[in-house]
Amino acid sequence: SGQSLGYGFVNYVDPKDAEKAINTLNGLRLQTKTIKVSYARPSSASIRDANLYVSGLPKTMTQKELEQLFSQYGRIITSRILVDQVTGVSRGVGFIRFDKRIEAEEAIKGLNGQKPPGATEPITVKFANNPSQKTNQAILSQLYQSPNRRYPAPLAQQAQRFSRFPPMTIDGMTSLAGINIPGHAGTGWCIFVYNLAPDADESILWQMFGPFGAVTNVKVIRDFNTNKCKGFGFVTMTNYDEAAMAIASLNGYRLGDRVLQVSFKTNKTHK
């Protein structure tokens, strides 16, 4: 498509210049995103699968406090806390990516089941495994079954009454067990967006999903005769964690007078 994947590389002649660039630009707010600048590393077994999923966090905990809690176990590459798109309040769920897998393992040993400062309940810390692994189904379930969902009603059931292609049901209505982790298309993760207005266009999808991470493609499905949106579209994102966060935050999002259904594309959705 020619669209940016959301990341790039810069080679410096002088290592001091590279260090200065990182110190100056890392964390810079650029349009709607905060960019991450760090040294590129060759892939190796020691750095793979070092991403943690954390749930049960106090709603008052900030991203900085989350990093302070986990930094005692190693160097943190990235961290994120999921927030409600409307209220901006934390969902109590976050991700921490360490420099090395052994650091992530130590963080699990030290923090899983513990109560961080300000917490009344223990937190859960586990690996955010590769989406192809069955264990990630439980992670997805926890992500969707947040007690703070703004629209706990079975919206997907309502959608099925007038859609031949309902999205994957949410909030525990249908178990994810037995379903292949959907959406992976080789070039990224395909997200199904349902209940769009007839006048919806691609720019709306770019604006909604862009803040969550690298979006490679968006498409609104249109009626052949009227060229109006048929009520649904697709978004492709390169990173699984970012796609999962976008789904968790935007499913149930009210756009105009419509409540959106957002899920990974499944074989049951429109081709």
From TrEMBL:
Gene3D superfamilies on file: 3.30.70.330
Protein name (Swiss-Prot/TrEMBL): ELAV-like protein
Classification via CDD domains: RRM2_Hu (cd12652), RRM3_HuB (cd12654)
Keyword tags: Repeat, RNA-binding
Family annotation (SUPFAM superfamilies): RNA-binding domain, RBD
Family: Belongs to the RRM elav family.
GO MF annotations, alphabetized: RNA binding
Domain RRM residues, every copy: 1-42, 50-130, 189-267
GO CC entries: ribonucleoprotein complex
PROSITE patterns: RRM
